[in-house]
Amino acid sequence: MQKPKYITRLDQLDQMSREEVESLKPVCAKYAFRTNDYYTSLINWNDPADPIRRIIIPQSGELNGWGRLDASDESRYTKASGLEHKYRDTALLLVNDVCGGYCRFCFRKRLFMEYNDEVTRDIEPGLEYIRSHPEITNVLLTGGDPLILSTSKLKGIIGKLREIDHVNIIRIGSKMPAFNPFRILSDTALSEMFEEFSLPEKRIYLMVHFNHPRELTKQAMASIMLVQKSGAIVCNQTPLLKGVNDDPRVLAELLQKLSFAGVPPYYIFQGRPTSGNYLFALPVEQSFEIFEAARMWCSGLAKRARLVMSHSSGKIEIIGKSHGKTFFRYHRAFHPRKKARFMEFKSNPRAYWFDDYQEIIAEYSLENPYRCLGPE
Fold first, then answer.
1. Fewer CB in 10 Å around end: N or C, the chain?
2. What is the rounded CA–CA span in Å between residue 368 and residue 348?
């Protein structure tokens, strides 16, 4: 299989009954569906709770009203069309609004809905913003999945970034090694592009998204090795997902296998309270317990990941629990006065997000705190 066939309708899946397809039409009408026959071949269709199925196949529970589309207020940090600048040295370029597959837990599913105008086909305004801000040393290409773009188009974007002297790191956020590793394996021009622009002192980082060990197929691992041989650095990040990787043994297996392949586990994310995502949501303190239990099964190289929330005010690391208290620290912060700030709150087992902690004070929260407490 060298060119997986894309699937954009549930009735293209022989494994699903007509009744299932009909029942899920309202979900597909609201949230986009897309996958391919390579990725669906990883599903055990005899298991209704199969983790790969949960990642990619719609479920009726997505219509639960919990959450909102822009759960981290990314719109607040948009400085030019398709350009977000939240942290001093890092900018995000939203280069497209298509992925190899649409994860059901996506926190940017708003980009794949009608009337979205956050992604631009013209990145020049974003590039001009980066040129005029020499403090930006790190640019993340995201969307959507940049590896959906043709290599020639991606090369054009990266080439222009390499012309900006103060941009040292270029990151590409992609789940293509999991969804369609043949995108990498069958395109020599992509490897050549990495070789050309991943320089000894100015690296390209491919930030891959493996959520479950079963995604680490022989083809996926071969694609990672090819990228590594091309001179780019590969790191992994994943949210903690109910029914996918919330078993500490499964999460530990994922972290271990990645470390064995030379792929540093980077972030483990607390799932954002995004519309349609309650099926995957875990309380903050349960996530911490799962994360720490998984780390106990891992070597030091496998346990380098940090458990964080991408909150509107910054990346907040969940660092501990003790004597009825839960402890947090700003790993990254928008406001300089909050950098590295340590925070202690009374334990709240029903809290799904930072704003759910009862003693939270105004300086930490949004003007209109959005609470995502679980059911009583």
1. C
2. 20
Residues 78, 59 share a domain: no
Q: Per the domain annotation, does 16 fall within a domain? A: yes
Ranges under pLDDT 50 in the chain: 361-363, 366-376
Are 27 and 171 in contact, with CB atoms under 8 Å apart?
Answer: no
Three-state secondary structure call for residue 325: strand
Q: What is the pLDDT, as a whole number, of residue 3?
A: 84
* Domain span at 201: 74-276
Q: What is the dihedral of CA 80, 154, 33, 185, to 10 degrees?
A: -160
Q: Which residue has the tokens 């600048």?
A: 85
User: Which pLDDT score, from 0 to 100, does residue 359 have?
Assistant: 56
Token readout for 54 is 């949960």
Distance CA 153, CA 13 (A): 32
Per-residue pLDDT at 114:
72
Residue 158 backbone dihedrals phi, psi, to 5 degrees: -65, -35
What's the predicted TM-score (pTM) here?
Answer: 0.93
Cα(101)–Cα(204) distance, integer angstroms: 23
Whats the size of the chain, residue-wise? 376
Place of tokens 């926190």: 107
Domain end, chosen from 257, 276, 295, is at 276
